[in-house]
Design brief:
Length: 294
């Protein structure tokens, strides 16, 4: 699957053009640090969904300690909850130092420290599905991603992906419709679009009614009719409702059989003025009818 990552810096995104160009998903920035939010996050997700894309999110980290990362996770979660949007793909913790903020603030560039920061974010963003984003060198030297046990989105601007994680960012200059985006490849084949606006979930087929359930329904209807006899003047027959597309043909025929048997029973009783048929006789007749149909 092909995708883009977007933020407030991508103004007036033409989502229809992205979809027409074969883009399947979008990773939308929630914000950065402990207080910076992306004002286009909600709109980007909603517009992407309307165009038929699925979405994830990312949060750029300025965390210098695990406690900073925990606060960033709480802030990120709050942005998503307030937006009230569906995310079919993970929330990504963007761990790097693109603007050298960490370097200027005497960050401890060790694998144990960086890994603990990532873990603090992942632990505190739960129960949201989440993973870690970083460039190849950080993933090789500073993040023990195996111990984290999470999905990894790797950045390597190259013709080939040497990491091959869950997702690969292969460029930051994918041009579509006159705009430039981060370009991504999603490898996970199980990440199919779901619950996107305008897309219906498959309807589960109903199971055919068993002979036992047919019997129970008929006897229940018979008891109800005995307690509530039909009026002397018959009402005009109602137009039968059209069965739903998801309803099994066997279920429809069983319901028709119930109505036919009960109607026939009432007509015979009115014509012959005979005693009502016993429960045992009804069951025998019903079972005989079910065997014939099968």
């Amino acid at each position: 699957m092909r995708g883009v990552d977007v933020s407030v810096f991508n103004e007036s995104v033409d989502w229809a053009a992205l979809k027409a160009a074969g883009i399947d998903f979008a990773i939308c920035r929630t914000g950065y640090g402990k207080s910076g939010f992306d004002e286009n996050f909600q709109r980007n997700v909603e517009e992407a969904h309307k165009a038929g894309l699925i979405c994830g999110a990312y949060h750029y980290s300025y965390a210098l300690t695990p406690s900073d990362a925990a606060a960033e996770a709480a802030f990120c979660k709050g942005i998503i909850e307030r937006a009230g949007v569906l995310l079919e793909l993970p929330v990504w913790f963007s761990m790097s130092d693109a603007d050298e903020y960490k370097k200027r603030h005497f960050f401890e560039f060790t694998k144990s420290h960086v890994t603990n920061i990532c873990k603090a974010f992942l632990d505190n963003i739960a129960p949201l599905n989440a993973g870690v984003y970083s460039n190849l060198s950080w993933l090789e030297d500073l993040i023990d991603w195996k111990s984290l046990g999470c999905k990894v989105w790797s950045a390597q601007y190259n013709a080939e992906d040497n990491f091959k994680g869950y997702m690969w960012q292969y460029t930051d200059a994918l041009e579509i419709g006159g705009q430039k985006f981060g370009g991504n490849i999603l490898y996970d084949k199980d990440a199919q679009p779901q619950a996107v606006e305008g897309v219906s979930a498959p309807v589960q087929q109903q199971q055919p009614a068993s002979p036992q359930s047919v019997i129970q329904n008929i006897l229940a209807n018979a008891r109800e009719n005995a307690n509530n006899p039909a009026p002397t003047t018959p009402a005009a027959p109602a137009t039968p409702a059209k069965p739903a597309a998801s309803e099994a043909p066997q279920t429809v025929s069983a319901q028709s059989a119930i109505s036919s048997i009960l109607n026939a029973s009432r007509k015979n009783a009115d014509a012959k003025k005979s005693a009502p048929e016993s429960t045992e006789d009804k069951i025998k007749n019903i079972l005989a009818g079910v065997r014939k149909k099968n």
